[in-house]
Amino acid sequence: MAVHAHPDDEASKGAATLAKYADQGVDVMVVTLTGGERGDILNPAMDRPGVTENITEVRREEMAAAAAALGVQHHWLGFVDSGLPEGDPLPPLPEGCFALVPLEEANERLVKVIRDFKPHVIITYDENGGYPHPDHIKCHEVSMAAWDAAGDPEAFPDAGEPWTPLKLYYTHGFIRDRIHAFSEEFEKVGEESPFKEWLSKWKRNQGDMMARVTTQVECAEYFPQRDDALRAHATQIDPNGFFFAVPLEWQQRLWPTEEFELAQTRVKTDLPENDLFTGIE
Fold first, then answer.
1. Which domain covers residue 185, as residue numbers?
2. Average pLDDT by consecutive 10-residue portion of the chain (281 residues)?
3. Does 81 share its domain with 148?
4. Is this model's pTM higher than 0.90 or not?
């Protein structure tokens, strides 16, 4: 079970791993906590009449197409996107948004889904949310609370029979060494790297997640499905933008894995791992 804040997050964070396990016959579910109602239109081709006015329905259709591309099940948890506050000072969050929902309420709702689906492995975000969007941080908090509560028979007795997940991972996508490898390849073929300025501001040992990674899943074969899922989120993903700047062949050859951090486990395992199910019989 991969727990994400918004539709499109599942496509940009560990998507090829989900597609790989689904293809191998594993039951895989993506849980999307909000509807993405406050997301901006990030693809110029989709900035047209009728899209913004019907953004909730559009993003539901996009999510269905992305789930189909990955071969996974999908569940909406039903909360409302908080939006990304901007300004100095930051404005207050909108009333009724996910980030303001009491933790207990969101926890119970996610616990019910866990008890119904019965996952052995849960994937979510780290304590920083991957990046500091209020919904991503709340996603982390809710996921950790549900990890603790799902197997507790005294917690939420009306939410189904207790089920105890065995491993919980954080997904890590912004790996400096990965971007550096792609940047070097651009230079080798005589092209200017689109990441040059970004890397120049990113000091080697500052803010990189590779030091936290415990598990690398080889999944290059499923990068095309990941890209299909990304393109399915047409309002959020520009096909001429960042996610498609690096040729697919380079990605498969230079960095054929997706990265995770084992944050909690109830089974014994040896690190580093190459499989999220290591230690689970």
1. 175-208
2. 98 98 98 95 92 94 98 98 89 95 98 98 95 94 98 98 98 91 96 89 68 97 98 95 93 98 98 98 89
3. yes
4. yes
